[in-house]
Write a structure and sequence with these properties.
It is a single chain. By secondary structure, this protein is mainly β. It has a domain at about 20-125: Jelly Rolls. Helix content is about 5%, strand content about 40%. The protein contains two helices and twelve strands. The chain is globular and about 45 Å long. The N and C termini lie far apart (about 35 Å).
Amino acid sequence: MAEPVAIIAQDAPPRAKRSIYPEQFAARMVDRVKKPLGDLFSLTNFGVNLTRLAPGALSALRHAHALQDEFIYVLEGSPILVTNSGETQLHSGMCAGFKAGTGDAHQLINRSDADVVYLEVGDRTAGDTVTYPDDDLKAQMVNGNWQFSRKDGTLY
């Protein structure tokens, strides 16, 4: 099937699997819906997701990438950005970037009573590793797939 020339982002199909985390962590992502927009156009150097967080939902486990930069732009709602520096209230029209290699772990939390919708953009640098300071989890990109282990290196 050929890639579309353009689409209405809201009409994109959601990712088939809600989360790639091991099950005990994936269960915390049930109220998050990602629509992988970049994949629809066969983009390989970076990914773009249109993400919706229901009230109470998390964007991800708080994490930091060693090699991959990330960027978010809030379209609707008022999520809380949690970083190593604490919490920052975001609103529609605000954006934030997360430089690789800084160790500044981040996540969004929807503590409001309305949905949050945002665009997330991240590069796909090979060999990336991800740390999760609040959970017994780390991830490593191996042959194009994420491999999850405990902090002691034991695989999930």
